[in-house]
Amino acid sequence: MTHDVAQDVRDWVDEIAAKTQPKEIRYLAGTDEEYRELTQDLLEAGTIVPVPKRPGSYLARSSRDDVARMEDRTFICSEHEIDAGPTNNWHDPTEMRSTLDELFTGSMRGRTLFVVPFTMGPLGGPISQIGVEITDSAYVAVSMMLMTRVTPEVHGAIDEGAFWVKALHSVGAPLDQGQEDIAWPSNPTRYITHFPETREIISYGSAYGGNALLAKKAFALRIASVMARDEGWMAEHMLILRMRHETGRVVHIAGAFPSACGKTNLAMLQSSLPEWQVETIGDDIAWLRPGSDGRLWAINPEYGFFGVAPGTSEKTNKVAMDMMERDVMFTNVALTDDGDVWWEGMSKEIPANLTDWQGNAYDPTGDQPAAHPNARFTVRASQAPSIAPDYDAPEGFPIDAIIFGGRRPSLVPLVLQSRSWQHGVFVGSTISSQQTAAAEGPVGQIRRDPFAMLPFAGYNMGDYFGHWLRMGEQLGDRAPKIFNVNWFRRDEDGGFLWPGFSENARVLDWIAKRLVGEVPGVETPVGILPAADELNLTGLDIDAETLNAIITCDVDGWQDEMNDVGAFFERFGHRLPNELSRELADVQSRLSSAYAAS
Ligand code: GTP
Ligand code: SPV
Ligand code: MN
User: CATH topology for 235-303+392-597?
Assistant: First the structure.
């Protein structure tokens, strides 16, 4: 098999193997047979257990301390600290390399070193990229097979001189001779490191999600955002969907919401408005490039979904439930006594005799959830019943609208349209959201998460804002229109004011109408809001007062918000583009006029 390995890959693998000392090296080709073999190994190791109710499906249980992305262990090791910027953890690259060298010495002893060649987007596509991940985790290898296109053709492309990204991963748990393995090997010492200038990724200690599946956040966002800045494209934390109207009209939308804030759900929307149908193109990452027609074209570089399980049900996301009937790798969900999975929100009633995500008998009277709040499902994108038939078209799709959003229990309206691209960049740069269980940290606390890229921009966020502005200048009047949404407004009792999920189709419908000027909207200091009668509310039970609360501009509240934005912007010093300071001043002056008039 090794005969078609690219020479450059073999050289790199040999170098890493000499350092990490694995018991064997295995070059993967991404075949179904390999997938079966590796899952068999994982079953024997106890890393996964079968889920008999769902053919071809397994449940992996991680260790208690390895359940989410670790932002404070994630590093951007650019040559100059200023290039990582105020929102990233920077570390000197030379020092980091020597720390990692020590950690990786002998780190794969007793384990198999897997070589995973993958392509992000179809091989050879105009927006696609390739990479190779080395990992000593079979769980990571099989997850990569679901999440990316793993193919030995990548070696051929590398031999022909194609650019590729090196991603090195070790769980940091070498096995001594005769030492028995544990179900979820990992190391409490953790580093998720990125070297933007050389486009390299090195991750140590964790086997979970974005920490370890390095094609995803590490490559497709952090390293790709740097490549995109240098090459004139964009790498974004965005879903992509297509809306199809019964008249034949088609609208493509890309949407950036922070982690666990609704991208997967919106991408799989089951429209409550019969005239619209939604097709899924991507649920987490978009790579966007100006096309020869001057429009912005986007692909989903991934091949699968790594979706949040809790909250997913027949009611909230039937598409996802149907998608999960077979061939799913679940992580950290609960098991029922009849061999099915379960998580909070899947059903109102908690099944009796659950096994919790740790593998223990679940105590429903306790205060712990049965599934971990960041429990996930990993599944091929092609399994989604809503997948667009052409979702992996190499040239991608021309984006008509970009939506930003976040979890804001108050103030931020259901939907608003920005006044211009530049104002839209301002809106994106000021996204804030309650933190979720997707990353280690305080759940519920509101923080600024510009463009939903706070943990994912591989360079100075101020420069990243500037890149967005430059892209807008290039796209001119062909640029997508920019909107902001918020499904998460709450009443005094903590209930949601907006029903969300399928009903979000009503918001997309307003956006589609705005794109062709079918409705005028209402100018406010913070953007264009819908008039109540512009929203199609047919069949929806919402009272006028509630609706009014979520589609009006609270001038007082926005004045405070803008003061907070001012303080946030100060962090970027002279790397903050002047255009954004001007947008802030403009919003503030519009708010002052509105205040004086009221
Ligand atoms: P990452 O994969 O972490 O980047 O997250 P994501 O943005 O894809 O989040 P996802 O769609 O998986 O949603 C996370 C949680 O938000 C789930 O528990 C959903 O049930 C919930 N959610 C999604 N859409 C809505 C909505 O419209 N209203 C409400 N109330 N909750 C929602
Ligand atoms: C996110 O946290 O935004 C995710 C999950 O999509 S992970 O791949 O773990 O980063
Ligand atoms: Mn994400």
Answer: Phosphoenolpyruvate Carboxykinase; domain 3 (3.90.228)
